[in-house]
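Table S7 (text form). Paired inputs.
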Amino acid sequence: MKSFLLAILALVVISVGANKILMNSGFASADAGTSHENVRLSD
């Protein structure tokens, strides 16, 4: 039981840490979907 609780705690810590890192590095889907640099306009 102790190993299971430790694994759950590690999962929560890794998930929260990954979310913080990805939100601060600009890999959010909202940032990628609203960028004007990704649009190609015809000449």
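Next pair, protein 2 of 2.
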Amino acid sequence: MDSRITLIITAAVGGVVIVSNAQNTPAINQSEAIRRQQEAERAIRETRDQNSEQAPLITPDEAFDIGPQYLLKARERLRWFSLDLDSHLSWTDNMLFNERDGLPTVRSTLLASTAQFAVSPWEGPLGEGRIRPRAGYRHLWMNYALLGPKEDPNTGFPKSDNDFDGATAFTDMSLSLANWQLQAGFDWQRLLSHQPEYTAYTEFYRSYSPRWSLGRIFAVSQKHAIVSSYMGALHFTHVDPTPGLNDGNRNDRVEHNLILGWAWIPLSKLYVQPLYRFQLASYTSQNRTDQVHNTSLSANYLFTSWLFARASAGYELRESNDPLTPDYRKWDIGFSLGASFRF
């Protein structure tokens, strides 16, 4: 596939949040939201890339019968390494993921900066499909209120007290089979706080997560396609236990995600995508089930073969059967600048 199309097609979606019965930790909530967004983008991007590896067109009329030519362009060569950089500046009307019938929700700007490096040294046939392994590392820097009011109006504390870093090592195996893309992988994640001082880097959350996904893209015309994906994961987690309780694993859960979107390319360098995501999370250490609904709209523009920008807006809500878990509502509007290198 043309690297321009690969860069343009992204999905600006939100993510699931975790709120324990003992405490509401915005940093964990926000890290989960970012993780879900990145995983949804990855699943859709790799589903699309799998279609790019099919055989070239046999006749000129074939594109009208089975879909856009850009989805069927053969890969020129295998690239072992990838480096992805992204800086996303956004505004949210509910940075603490609170219910609106309690204290007033807190508005804030957020800057999420991500760097990811991965290696995939080979790919080979497996039956009628092709298999490819990958391993890498991703680092996240999360900063609150770099622009706008600096303090929480409800408490007077600095919003930057919620700043954190996220470190994730990952590995996965992808199988391309006909029009389908299957993947199984494993993530190891740590979240690091900047409290009591910025250089502390104190671990406050850890997770071990086997994951799996299945995706497909359905071409409608040369400029329109339906993108779909299912993602599942098991999360084995650790946080500091609540005093007097043995609940350090209270965030353990099983997640199921369904993603459905419409892809439209009005111009060669412009990609627009409305998208809906549903998530069901069942917590294994407590009687709790969360449902998260997210709708979003993103517009992506490619400046060069490796540099792109994205504007996005989304609305998200959560409903939980746990009375101590907030049923939040939130709006997010943001702008990203990113770069993607394959070599």
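The longest strand covers residues 202-219.
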